[in-house]
Design brief:
The complex is a heterodimer.
Chain A: H1 12-29, H2 33-45, H3 47-63, H4 67-75, H5 89-111, E1 115-119, E2 126-129, E3 135-138, E4 143-148, E5 153-166, E6 174-178, E7 181-194, E8 198-212, E9 221-223, E10 227-232, E11 236-240, H6 243-249, E12 256-263, H7 264-274, E13 278-281, H8 284-287, E14 290-296, H9 300-309, E15 314-317, E16 321-325
Parallel strand pairs in A: 5-6, 13-16
Antiparallel strand pairs in A: 1-4, 2-3, 3-5, 4-5, 5-7, 6-7, 7-8, 8-9, 8-10, 10-11, 12-14, 15-16
Helix pairs in contact in A: 1-3, 2-3
Chain B: H1 20-30, H2 34-44, H3 51-68, H4 74-93, H5 107-112, H6 122-134, H7 138-149, H8 154-161, H9 165-185
Helix pairs in contact in B: 1-3, 2-3, 2-4, 3-4, 7-9, 8-9
The chains are: A alpha+beta, B mainly alpha.
Chain lengths: 326, 194
Amino acid sequence: MSNDGLENTCNMADTIEATAAAWLRHRQWDWNAECEAEFNAWLTESWSHRVAFWRLEAAWNRAERLTALRLNVIASPSRSLTEKKRPHLLKTIASVGAAVLVGLSAMWWMSRPVERTYSTAIGDRRTITLSDGSRIELNTDTVLRVSMGSKERTAFLDGGEAYFQIKHDPSKPFVVIADNHRITDLGTKFVVRDDPDHFKIALLDGRVRLDTVGEPKQSGILLKPGQELTSTARSTSTEYKSTEELSNELGWKRGMLIFENVSLADVASEFNRYNSKKLIIADAAAAHRTIGASFPTGNVDLFAQMARDVLHLHVEDRGTEIVISR
Amino acid sequence: MAEAPEIPSDCESRLQLAAPEVKAWFVREVLPLEAALTQFLHRNWRKGSDIADLRQEVYVRICQVAQKQPPEPVKPFLFTVARNVLIDRVRHTQVVPIEAVSDLDALGVAVDAPGPDRTVMARDELRRLEIALDKLPQRTRDVVVMARVEGLSGREIAMRLGISEPAVSQQLEKGMRRLADILYSAPPDLRSDT
């Protein structure tokens, strides 16, 4: 290739794209207010920064859809994620028919808020960043549907646990619906857990309003930072938790289970949320022992070892379950 | 054909905040045309290493226009901007022989060529993504899958693969860039299974 005097401008795009990729990686893995400010400064510096970042981000967002494959992978372990697939006649026919439908409904589809479903399998967790910059971290075995409307942003927690860090927008409230509870974000960080038998919300920062779906909003209550509300079929209670207690409860965000003075019965049920190999505490004497310890969420074997060697309990590993008794 | 308005050169110095609308418009309307645009640039510019720069310049200009008024329809406008960018580059350098852009007048053909179908159905999209993944080098693909699909952190991936965290970061960034190239720049025939 001849030298045509373009060296000074050559590969500018390449340099910018490299920086854009570094920002995108940061956002995937380690993000905080400081990053955010620096990133915004970089982004607004020039249009070439913006288009480069938008392009990478758009591709990365598309790749999010690959998580759908994961369900297949879990359902049929023999199939590798990247295995090449052969074209299938039926599939092709179905595609053509569906493409017509897609075309017809395109206008309708584009004009309404799209609901997206995010989920995690047992033992997994995942961070999603919404188009408004809000971040949601999903804990193990969680299903969350998000719809970004023009007047309201809504997330349905269909089960599991999620930590919300919401970009406040007074013109577009962020509402989380879990079971029959409606949580309206008033600028904030909070964690919501929706188990079959109980619902829990803890507020770390800011304000949220909590009310019941189907009842007038005035009946709701405002939660204050540090406050945790637990609701079961029979009762609802709130209590204040220290920063440390809340931080322990959020240990899962770092892949850890942190216990302070917790009974083995409760330890077992926590572990069982994250693992398919279940812990069973066979008798009351063992169930009432309390411990203070931390474990990686997936390392139930480490806990079993500790129960045997430190607590001197009887531990029986049956492959799919671990039975602990006195 | 519509003329692309001149962009004042001091535009960069008085940037408004990025309007989310411009971004949404860019991702929705412009990025799907990238394969056609890239092809057009390749046809009309002989130095392949300039393509990324030229494409970026096109994007910058069209977004600046869209900030005031999104052009409609997008495609002919995009190619007009591309053409202007090429002409400006020729004028600016005064080195590239003029025949480098000689078939610009054949532009009409490129404009009418079918672009990628924007209403790709979800399953097609998924297959396309899988194919894109397959085009990544093994190590890069592993990192992308672990980060994007399994939601693992850099440290966790480093542990799993037995490589350093900076190496993981490097692979992830590479994967992000390659994915964008494959998903947007590569000719649409990538979507076939072969």
